[in-house]
Specification:
A hairpin with a 5-residue loop joins strand 4 (154-163) and strand 5. This protein has 6 helices and 5 strands; from the N terminus they run αααβααββαββ. Strands 1, 2, 3, 4 and 5 form a 5-stranded mixed beta sheet that branches. With 187 residues, it is α+β, with helices and mostly antiparallel strands. The termini are far apart.
């Protein structure tokens, strides 16, 4: 039989005994149910991070906007190919072809083309060219707008308009095209 003094003490402190029993039930539930679920959740989060996914908005990776990604993709080559084409003159020919085509689309006339230097940098190849073009001022402004919308990384380094007889000018253009070198896992 139980000690009557012990039973009286337990009755007097029934709230404490109830709290200890509730704690024991929660501890068993935590160890048996919640801890395995939490461990599985942590494994899932770790696997998601390895795959490049983030379930927490605060830890989400920064995404490149699609238009920027398309611009980078169009204007990049693998590093070895960019280096080879840069030294062979293929990139210069490509630049002159692109600029000449854009010039012709805007009603301008190419008088002369002159390839410039090709500079290899750690992350890009810079291809330069000089062109002489006959155009009106409106055609030149239209050409600048077309160059801006062309989706290529062609920069107009400098230009000069001279002449002006009957509204036609001689335009000297110095342009540079940036070809980005792709590295592994990046564009």
């Amino acid at each position: 039989m139980m000690n009557p003094l012990l039973i009286a003490q337990i009755r007097r402190h029934w709230q404490l005994v109830g709290a200890v029993l509730v704690f024991a039930v929660f501890l068993v539930m935590h160890l048996a149910v919640f801890q395995p679920v939490a461990a599985r959740y942590q494994r899932t989060l770790r696997l998601a991070r390895v795959l490049g996914l983030a379930l927490d908005p605060a830890q989400s990776p920064h995404m490149i906007p699609p238009r920027v990604l398309a611009l980078l993709s169009v204007n990049s080559l693998p590093a070895a190919v960019a280096q080879e084409q840069g030294s062979s003159g293929a990139l210069t020919a490509s630049l002159l072809e692109a600029i000449t085509q854009l010039i012709n689309q805007h009603g301008m006339r190419v008088i002369a083309t002159e390839p410039g230097t090709t500079a290899a940098q750690p992350r890009a190849v810079l291809v330069r060219a000089h062109l002489r073009v006959e155009c009106s001022y409106g055609e030149f402004v239209s050409f600048l707008d077309g160059l801006d919308r062309s989706g290529t990384l062609i920069a107009l380094d400098r230009f000069s308009l001279s002449g002006g007889a009957s509204g036609r000018y001689v335009l000297d253009l110095w342009v540079t095209r940036y070809i980005l070198k792709q590295t592994e896992g990046r564009t």
